[in-house]
Amino acid sequence: MISTPTQRWIAIGLLAVALTGCSFLSKAPSEEPVAPVQEPSDPPEPSEQPTPGSGDGEGPAGDERPPDDEPAAEEVTMLDCLRRFGLSELAPGVDELIRGLPDDGMWQCVARTARFDRNYRAWVAHEVLVSGVDHIDASLPGYRAFVRTTELHFAEPQTLPVPEGWTLQDALPSPSGRYLAARLADGGVGWWAADGRAQERYDVDGYDLVWHPEEDQLAFISDGRRLHLVRPAGPAVHQVYEAPAEAPIRFPYWALETWYAGYNESYPPGTLLVLADPEGEPEGLALRPDNGRWGRFPAKRIFDPVARAVRFPSWLTQPWSTLFGEYLHLVPDGGWLAYPNPGGSPYTFYQVPDGVEPVTLTWSPNARFFALVERRDGQLIAQVLRGSHDYTGRQYAVPLENAHIAVWDDGVTVFTVTGATVRAKNHLTGTEHAWQVEGEVKAIRLGGFRLYIVLEDRIIVVPFSEAASLSEAPRAEHPADAA
Q: What is the mean pLDDT of residues 385-389?
């Protein structure tokens, strides 16, 4: 029986191959190779606008990759894997590999599956990392082929100018990458087009900026109770709504599908949701932008007797998961960070230890992982955890010099800042890439296969791609790779 999340992902990955007919048979000498589909390392329209960095950011350092000519998974086909192991043997076999089983053939099958399934690849990589590699023979070609699938390939950095007169405090890209929104050093909020053709600034004390995960819509809050909705495309639209609450509101987001507020009430996709009085007596508010009407819903969506009270402290930063369209809760009794499942009982992700001060929380772009930055004994450290419903309760820690951190959706590549150096480290392979910048780094962001290094007067954009984003077989693109 497949009993662990790791085993389930193995089975799902292999079954996907079988169902799509991707046998991965070795190519005949006369067969033309399949042209790979390019990830956005060739930047689309928004990234073509910035000019080369010319000293503002250096190219990747330490780009050391394993030799391409070493024997790897090319010698084993997916059909071979299914014939040898089947679903029932390969699934629990991966757990044995992590515990040290020296089976190169099985590792090659893991590498094969990892080449086309991002979820599977991330799950196994994270499991290997949190379990430790002390018992794994790292010289096995199959294992080396697998870890290579987790590498990122970085292009040359580019410089994106900031509108004249603006000084950035923070910035974040829209889903398409065509626009950027920023909190300004003087307290205002602004957005501008990456091609420089449009911009708009609002002289309000704005915070909690967030883009819709699929559309170029921006939401933010000002003055405690005003909710702003901005659509920059075409003629710019800026709407302001006053929340019907006495207490401040926080954490705006959109209902990604029908939002069920109770047994007899629901809101359609596109409804804007906020939390009022998040650290006192939280209450949910729902705004219908189509008619301007507000509704209310219980902020506590964990229907568990143990979780008698919940809070949403400011260090949650952005509690909403783009993967499931729900938000994290903090259960003060025990310090549990939890998430509601469809049945109501909570998925518990992490327990904040006594004496530890949480600082910020950062999701990976598609919310497959998140990093909780804590202060322990005066030192900053980030706990990197899974963000999915089959979370297993394990994490690894990354020491930090400051609270700037970004996590890629593979769960093993983490971006940090040390002084004037921005560093990307694959914690499974140890590979590092670094960029030196001139000026204080205000923030680092990930979006659309790009790293955004936010400085006061410019943004350095570093496009990248995944080493194993697509299958080698025709028409075998995994849906996650097209997202």
A: 83
Q: What is the DSSP letter of 437?
A: B
| Cβ contact 121:480 at 8 Å | no
Task: Give the pairing type, strands 259-260 and 266-267.
Answer: antiparallel
Rg from Cα positions in the chain: 23
Q: What is the DSSP string of 117-138?
A: -HHHHHHHHHHHHHH-STTS-T
For the chain, the straight-line distance linking the first and the last C-alpha, in angstroms and rounded, comes to: 32
Long-range pairs of 180-185 with CB within 8 A, sequence gap ≥ 24 = 180/452, 180/459, 181/209, 181/211, 181/218, 181/220, 181/230, 182/209, 182/454, 183/207, 183/209, 185/456
What tokens were used for 275? 């939390």
- DSSP character at residue 302: -
Give the strands of the sheet with 432-436, arranged side by side: 405-407, 413-418, 421-426, 432-436
Cα–Cα–Cα angle for 128, 147, 370, nearest 5°?
Answer: 55
The span from the CA of 409 to the CA of 469, in Å, is 12
Q: How many CA atoms lie within 13 A of 233 on its CB side?
A: 9
Q: How far apart are CA 405 and CA 137, in angstroms?
A: 31
Q: Give strand ranges (E) for 114-205.
A: 152-154, 158-161, 168-173, 179-184, 189-193, 199-202
Distance CA 365, CA 388 (A): 13
Token couple for 288: 């219908």
Each residue's pLDDT tens digit, 104-145: 988 998 998 888 888 889 989 999 999 998 899 999 999 999
Tokens 């018992």 belong to residue = 135
Residue whose tokens read 């080396």: 144
Per the CB < 8 A criterion, the answer to whether 309 and 331 are in contact is yes
d(CA 139, CA 142): 9
pLDDT, residue 87, reads: 61
Distance, CA of 183 to CA of 185 (rounded, Å)? 7
Please give the pLDDT value at position 469. Answer: 60
* C-alpha angle 474-477-482 in degrees, rounded to nearest 5: 145
189 with 201: CB under 8 angstroms?
yes
Judge residue 220's burial from the number of C-beta atoms within 10 Å of its C-beta, 0-12 exposed, 13-18 middle, 19 or more buried.
buried
- DSSP 8-state symbol, 149: T
Tell me how far apart the alpha carbons of residues 263 and 483 are, in angstroms, rounded to a whole number.
33
Instruction: Say how far apart CA 352 and CA 327 lie, in whole Å.
Output: 17
Rounded mean pLDDT, 85-95:
69
Q: What confidence category does residue 90 fall into, taking pLDDT thresholds of 50, 70 and 90?
A: low
Q: Model's pTM, two decimal places?
A: 0.83
- Kindly report the number of other CB atoms within 10 A of residue 297's CB atom: 18
Residue 262 burial (CB count, 10 A): 10
Distance, C-alpha 364 to centroid of its chain: 2
